[in-house]
Amino acid sequence: MTATCWRNWSGLEEAAPREVATPASVEAVVEAVRHAREAGTTVKMTGTGHSFTAIAAPEHTMLRPDAMRGVVEVDRQAMTVTARAGTPLKDLNLALERLGLSLHNMGDIAEQTLAGATSTGTHGTGGTAAGLSAQLAGLELVTGTGEVLRASAEENADVLDVARVGLGALGILTSLSFHVEPLFVVEAHEQPMTWDAALASYDEMVAAAHHVDMYWFPHTDAMVVKQNVRTDLEPGEQEPPSRLAAWWEDELVANTVFGALCRVGSRSPGLVPRINRVAGRALSDRRYSDLAHRVFVSPRRVRFREMEYAVPREVGLDVLRECRRVIEASDWRIAFPVEVRTAPADDVPLSTSHGRDSLYLAFHVPADTDHRPYFGGLEPLLREAGGRPHWGKVHTRAAADLAPVYDRFDDFLAMRDRLDPDRVFANPYLRRVLGV
Predict the structure, then answer these.
(1) Fewer Cβ atoms within 10 Å of its own Cβ: the N or the C terminal residue of the chain?
(2) 267 vs 129, more confident
(3) Which pTM was predicted?
(4) Pseudo-torsion of CA 272, 274, 276, 281, nearest 10°?
(5) Which residues have C-beta within 8 Å of that of residue 271, sequence separation ≥ 6?
(6) Which residues make Cβ contacts (< 8 Å) with residue 39, sequence separation at least 6?
(7) CA 45, 49, 53, 58 torsion: positive or negative?
(8) Among residues of the chain, what percentage have pLDDT more than 90?
(9) 247, pLDDT greater than 90
(10) Other CB atoms within 10 A of residue 372 CB
(11) Contacts of 200 (CB under 8 A, 6+ apart)
(12) At how many degrees (to 10) do helices 316-328 and 372-384 cross?
């Protein structure tokens, strides 16, 4: 083992583990966990670092996921697919496409490992299940005592129930089984709208489309709305954007030009309102159809910092309006749009949508910007609305403050005591959000 430095994608968190290894088997993971337990130290399997928090930061031993990738089982009768936990989501999507299969829903970034994405509660918008964890059929993990434990509806169902969003606190995931469905085609409609028109028609759009995503450009009335509808088209019948159109919208406008505008705004904050008006008009009205994962996932080459909260759906738009009021009353200059998504209730104990339909509000700043005034100014408002922070995104909440918004928080802590009694998987972030 050799030491190295760990740093997350946004550059906001870093750590200097004393030992580093790249296990290629479950047995190698077991050995690393038992070694850490016997030595009284800690061990973490890191992912790709796409969490903005230090949830995966290693204290002592860091395990890399690179050698634990790939699909290992396809069960077409049960409609499940099992993959090793270090598999990037983008690789799973491509493997499923080749098999004629698809996940039901996903977020707009697919760089994360399956273990990291599920453990932090990564989600998309709309559908019958928004979160990746709500689509899990089973999992395998190595507990803090070095036991290899398999969990499904038939075996250790109580573990599956809690560990679907496990925060990396219950064990090291080695494989994950997902419910899948036949590959399907989505029709996308992206259009600019005004603030008033978008909010007035939001409930109607959510009822009419399977997946709705909105972006508000602060200091303006500009919105961009994306509506995605499942179609009856067979794979191969879709009409994706041309290569030129995709490059223009997704690479040049959404990444290159947007990144340049952010850099200008960082140097000259007074120009941000004008820049946002330009950005809000830059994306044109367009329609196209494509395979689901190609529609849901977009390239994100501009680095940023993010805070996201899930608030109860019934008060969500009012909370968004109050956030706008606070932003406009401040001297902040916010160059990134605010993202608005919805999710149906699920039954995952530490999912941010556990037991209630949710509206997600995501706030961003460029990676080289101090996020604390903006995020800190809005977080009390989101908290008072009953908001739950995304586990992998910036927030300041701690265990005593989080427990009241999760009615099964104690169930999770009890499972942690059972699976990791010696806190082999602990780190400063987990001690803060879960307690000692």
Answers:
(1) C
(2) 129
(3) 0.94
(4) -170
(5) 264, 265
(6) none
(7) positive
(8) 84
(9) no
(10) 12
(11) none
(12) 140
